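Progress report, Aim 2. The chain analyzed during this reporting quarter is listed below.
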Amino acid sequence: MAVHLSSGDIDRQLEQLKRCELIKESEVKALCAKAREILSEEENVLRISPPVTVCGDIHGQFYDLKELFKIGDDCPETNYLFMGDYVDRGFYSVETFLYLLLLKVRYPDRINLIRGNHESRQITQVYGFYDECLRKFGSVNVWRYCTEIFDQLALTAVIDNQLFAVHGGLSPSIETIDKITTDINRFQEVPHDGPMCDLMWSDPEEIEGWGISPRGAGFLFGKTATQKWNETNNLKCILRAHQLVMEGYKYMFNEGLVTVWSAPNYCYRCGNVAAILELDENLNRSFKIFEAAPAEVRQAPTKAPQPAYFL
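Predicted structure tokens for the chain:
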């Protein structure tokens, strides 16, 4: 049965979360049911028309997400693509993910969310989101509702048939974009290996061909693998997130790939700036750099985040 959520209800919940005030568990349940209806209809590969603003990891840094919307303009005025890792490490993963999910339900054609490696039951039980849900709601129900939504998120996106967006990187077992559509069942927990895992875990590296990833999942891929992927699929560039970049963004391989990082002062201690990538109707690229929200606008967190396993 279709779930009805009025635009008035959604707008009220958005305003509540914008003040960093939690919505009720029953409201989270209804939101996730509605979001499931929308997300389950999407393909593994989203097809997006410009103009669009592309964003990297957020990691529960809700006040910095608000800074992002200040410099990029609010949705629906701006069309957004977020490339995953909404949760873990930061103090406000619940507020961050629910806020973005509310935007998706309210403006489904104006914001797109793809899955990162942290949108996973196993990872969130280690790096903060599970504990945060338990602490803020007194049960694991909200974590369960959200992790069921993780399974619905698209894996990649293609912008104007020229730019390929993915959280992590490439897979040696996928040669074409069509294979992502036809060969992967995304409606599951992120596997430990295989093409779905690779898309969320792999990293570019200055190597020839492919290498073993120090993360223990995915692969390292070099310039030749990147060039082959772009040529085979008639692409100009790979857009991805997944790695901290102190300057907010970083090109590699003759601008055949760019990493976009959108969590400033990552883990509240790394001292990096963040970036978003604005693409106009003609795919002209403009990076907007922003810093962490000033201390005076933040609420004091109630508990330190989990220690980093790697940055």
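DSSP finds ten helices and 14 strands in the chain. The CA atoms of residues 53 and 278 lie 4 Å apart. These observations will guide the mutagenesis work planned for the next reporting period.
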